[in-house]
Write a sequence for this structure.
């Protein structure tokens, strides 16, 4: 799907889900306006000399940070390095973070940011300079109690370490200003795998409730980055059969199941899944339409849309990525009896563990990995049960219940604070 159309769908989708929640909660027009309005949107230009076809050229990159809402705590949200990053998409993802933080009841608001670039086209030195220049311009907005970035598509603990370094030049050593950092700089044990592990824990719970035991469940995962690779590894450890995986270049499939540990080793050496021993190549479009128990989009927005929703043959779609199912596709899937576990619930293990990391930084007291992952699982499953119970009692789908719960909390905080 063309990038422009994808962005439109992503914003429209958010808008539709929000209007439904606003109506359910009977919010006044002024409250709706306030909930939609971003607190601050920042766009910056970052000039950098880059090597292109053997010569050095000056390129001006565009960087963004949208701080959506801080009624319940400091702004919190990922930083994305991807060619498709723009203000509209960042705005939609920042809002989503506000609802996600509220749903899991952590004391954060919502934000999102990024730079429009393909990080694979820059060397590590250039990426470091670019990240530090981005941070220099964003320093006045950031802070342990102001705004706390984290990794997202195309960024990782190393990028967080560069942000920490640049911020600390102005404010002294401040590990709590970013989460998803390397362990050596105050990162949390378990943060790297937290989002994917959380997705897997929710799937195991749903599987048991649907009498589709996780042992032997047939699973398809699109996207094999931080989230996708850890969902696949966690589910494989729980006994699921991963029948297809993919990345940007395409997918691999094996009817009898893929050795996920071998896939991780293969990608570490070859960069892509392509050519993984014991698998057949498959396109990303074909992969999405494979019959399976759990289909897990873990890459970009609008992956399941009006073009392919009627061809999806999964029993459950689990939104490990943010906004991977458009509004129209959401309706089509539900009409066809396919259960959707919404992003603000499924991938909330990321922000939950970011919260644990922030708490450890504030207390200067690290927790061990077992404690982090145990607390993550307990709390995420409690949230799942709240959403499930609300969905049952109001006879609505899980997304509607999750949005109603989250937006109600943000609206209440706004009223109490007298925004
Ligand atoms: P990542 O950059 O680590 O991985 C992205 C993966 O998607 C890569 O394997 C890439 O090759 C693949 N990909 C990119 N374009 C694709 C395409 N067109 N078709 C198929 N595959 C494609 O990113 P990530 O951190 O794993 O994030 C993935 C999703 O999860 C995003 O929507 C992100 O916002 C969301 N998310 C991430 C976190 C986190 O903690 N990292 C937390 C919550 C939500």
């Amino acid at each position: 799907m063309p990038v422009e159309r994808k962005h439109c769908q992503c914003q429209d989708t958010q808008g539709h889900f929000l209007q439904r929640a606003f109506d359910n909660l009977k919010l006044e027009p002024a409250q709706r306006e306030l909930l939609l309005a971003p607190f601050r949107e920042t766009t910056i230009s970052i000039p950098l000399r880059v090597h292109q076809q053997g010569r050095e050229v000056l390129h001006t990159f565009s960087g963004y940070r949208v701080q959506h809402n801080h009624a319940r705590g400091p702004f919190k949200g990922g930083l994305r390095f991807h060619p498709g990053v723009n203000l509209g998409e960042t705005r939609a993802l920042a809002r989503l973070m506000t609802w996600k933080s509220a749903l899991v009841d952590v004391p954060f608001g919502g934000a999102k940011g990024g730079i429009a670039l393909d990080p694979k086209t820059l060397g590590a030195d250039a990426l470091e300079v670019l990240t530090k220049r981005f941070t220099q311009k964003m320093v006045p907005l950031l802070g342990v109690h102001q705004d706390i970035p984290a990794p997202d598509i195309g960024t990782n603990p190393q990028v967080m370490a560069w942000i920490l370094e640049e911020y600390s030049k102005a404010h002294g050593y401040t590990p709590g200003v970013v989460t998803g950092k390397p362990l050596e700089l105050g990162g949390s044990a378990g943060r790297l795998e937290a989002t994917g592990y959380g997705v897997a824990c929710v799937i195991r719970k749903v599987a048991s409730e649907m009498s589709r035991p996780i042992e032997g469940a047939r699973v398809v995962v699109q996207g094999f980055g931080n989230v996708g690779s850890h969902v696949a590894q966690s589910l494989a450890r729980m006994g699921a059969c991963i029948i297809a995986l993919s990345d940007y270049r395409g997918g691999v499939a094996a009817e009898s199941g893929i050795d996920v540990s071998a896939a991780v080793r293969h990608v570490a050496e070859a960069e892509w899944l392509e050519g993984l021993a014991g698998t057949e190549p498959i396109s990303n479009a074909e992969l999405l339409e494979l019959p399976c128990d759990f289909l897990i989009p873990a890459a970009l927005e609008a992956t399941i849309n009006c073009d392919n929703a009627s061809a999806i043959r999964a029993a459950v779609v689990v939104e490990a990525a943010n906004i991977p199912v458009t509004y129209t596709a959401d309706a089509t899937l539900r009409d066809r009896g396919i259960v959707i576990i919404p992003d603000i619930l499924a991938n909330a293990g990321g922000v939950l563990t970011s919260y644990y990391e922030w708490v450890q930084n504030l207390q200067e007291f690290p927790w061990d990995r077992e404690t982090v992952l145990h607390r993550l699982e307990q709390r995420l499953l409690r949230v799942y049960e709240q959403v499930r119970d609300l969905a049952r009692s109001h006879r609505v789908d899980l997304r509607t219940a999750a949005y109603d719960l989250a937006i109600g909390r943000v609206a209440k905080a706004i009223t109490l604070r007298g925004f």
Notes: The two ends are 40 Å apart (CA to CA).
